[in-house]
Design brief:
heterodimer; A: mainly beta; 5-stranded antiparallel beta sheet; globular; B: mainly beta
């Protein structure tokens, strides 16, 4: 079955440093979604990418979808303490299978 | 209204109890989901309803029984649960199957 891997599992940064998490699927995806879950909270939708090579920005966050639609990345510029949480990618295979979540990357930010 | 509302927020139940988790959305979304999430793990899909019909059951034990009374409501009926079923149960909805999902705040379930 489809596997979605994220690296790194944990990332500790000093406030102001940049952060990147990578998502890799074993199968080609029809789309990919990114979610953020704060400690004790629920996943909150950030963005969906659909097209091969697509890049989207939300303020300090930049999302990319790979050309082969099998990988994606989330980059945060100049992290802030409000960025703390676990970032998950999720996406369905092209065969319209169920959407699988990656294991997540947990970001901690030291003020 | 961009909310998915789940009740109750917390639930403690014995292994012989019967309880139900409720989920409601008024965004006109046609797909609704139940997920189970253990600590420090990603959400794990349990059930998907698409256009009020059960379209995916991820081999979930029969002690979990989903129900979709109408397009806005989703229930999860619980019976004879085990302590290892203790987890955060999340409901989500999306406009169509496998598009961006909006999650409720979850029900934190403890089975004693």
């Amino acid at each position: 079955g489809q596997q979605v891997m994220q690296i790194p599992q944990y990332q500790h940064v000093q406030e102001g440093e940049d952060f990147t998490t990578y998502c890799n699927s074993s199968t080609t995806l029809s789309n990919i979604q990114w979610y953020k879950q704060r400690p004790g909270g629920h996943p909150v939708f950030l963005i969906q990418l659909v097209k091969s090579g697509e890049v989207k920005k939300q303020k300090r966050l930049t999302f990319q979808f790979g050309e082969a639609k099998k990988n994606s990345s989330l980059h945060i510029t100049a992290t802030q303490t409000t960025d703390v949480g676990t970032y998950f990618c999720a996406g369905p295979s092209l065969d319209a299978g169920k959407s699988t979540f990656g294991d997540g990357t947990t970001l901690t930010v030291k003020p | 209204d961009t909310e998915v509302t789940q009740t109750p927020k917390h639930l403690v139940m014995g292994m012989t109890n019967k309880k139900s988790l409720k989920c409601e959305q008024h965004m006109g979304h046609r797909a609704m989901y139940w997920y189970k999430q253990k600590a420090k793990k990603p959400p794990e899909l349990m059930f998907v309803y698409s256009y009020e019909k059960l379209s995916i059951n991820e081999s979930v034990p029969s002690r979990f029984s989903p129900e979709c009374p109408n397009s806005s409501l989703l229930n999860l009926h619980l019976h004879a649960l085990q302590p290892e079923d203790s987890a955060l149960y999340l409901c989500a909805s999306s406009q169509d199957y496998n598009t961006e999902a909006f999650f409720g705040q979850g029900t934190r379930l403890t089975v004693v």
